[in-house]
Design brief:
Blueprint: H1 2-36, E1 40-49, E2 59-64, E3 70-74, E4 80-87, E5 89-96, E6 102-110, E7 115-117, E8 120-122, E9 130-133, H2 153-158, E10 176-178, E11 190-192, E12 203-204, E13 207-208
Parallel strand pairs: 1-7, 1-8, 6-9
Antiparallel strand pairs: 1-4, 2-3, 2-5, 5-6, 10-11, 12-13
Length: 231
């Protein structure tokens, strides 16, 4: 009988240990998913002189034009600087180094998931002099092969919407079709590049906004749908 009791307790202990490990694994995976869904991006680049030679140790300042928040860093030995992760918005990047004029690049638009490459060229001169580039730069996402399209507030407001449902706007983008046979078809569900509507990912202010009901009994693959005026 004692041996039987020991066997039962060992089995129960093993089940509890397995359950604890499973919960820990789920929490770890969930934390990774939440981190990847944050509404943030990256601005990086190289500071160089007029000949194209890199400038290590240059001071680079990133300013959010909407909030006025400024971040400062220095370039490494390869002249590279990086700001990550940073919130989406419009930014100005300023770079300077002894013996060079300061250079500012304005109107840098950072969208969700962007990794922008902004190269700054410094001209010889006094540090008190500043060269400002006011035109938006031709930004290249050299470190990502993802294909994306960002819709502005102006586009959302100017598009006739069925029932003021902005989800339908996604059906106007390249590679996207209305969801065929999906329970959420009446709420704007779509299929992107041949993927099932259930594989779409809705994020609201960085928070998971996907319904947990597999067959979409609530009639949509998302939970909360803010009015278009809130976008």
């Amino acid at each position: 009988m004692k041996k039987l009791h020991k066997s039962i307790w060992r089995a129960l202990f093993g089940m509890r240990l397995a359950s604890a490990l499973l919960c820990l694994l789920c929490m770890t995976q969930a934390s990774k998913v939440v981190y990847a869904q944050m509404d943030q991006g990256t601005i990086t680049g190289v500071v160089q002189d007029s000949t194209g030679a890199v400038i290590p140790g240059a001071t680079v300042t990133l300013t959010n034009n909407g909030t006025g928040l400024a971040l400062t860093t220095t370039t490494d030995k390869s002249g590279i600087y990086i700001f990550s992760p940073i919130k989406i918005g419009t930014y100005t990047v300023n770079a300077g180094s002894p013996g060079f004029k300061e250079t500012s690049q304005e109107h840098i638009q950072l969208n969700v998931g962007d990794r922008l490459n902004v190269v700054l060229s410094l001209s010889p001169g006094a540090a008190s002099q500043t060269v400002t580039v006011s035109t938006a730069p031709a930004l290249l996402q050299t470190q990502s092969s993802a294909v994306e399209q960002t819709l502005s507030t102006r586009t959302v407001n100017a598009t006739p919407l069925n029932g003021r449902n902005w989800v339908y706007i996604a059906q106007l983008t390249a590679g996207v079709d209305p969801a065929a046979g999906s329970r959420g078809a009446g709420k704007g569900d779509f299929e992107a590049n041949g993927q099932d509507a259930g594989q779409n990912n809705f994020i609201l202010d960085g928070v998971d906004n996907n319904t947990s009901v597999v067959d979409f009994l609530n009639g949509a693959s998302f939970v909360v749908r803010p009015p278009p005026d809130a976008l």
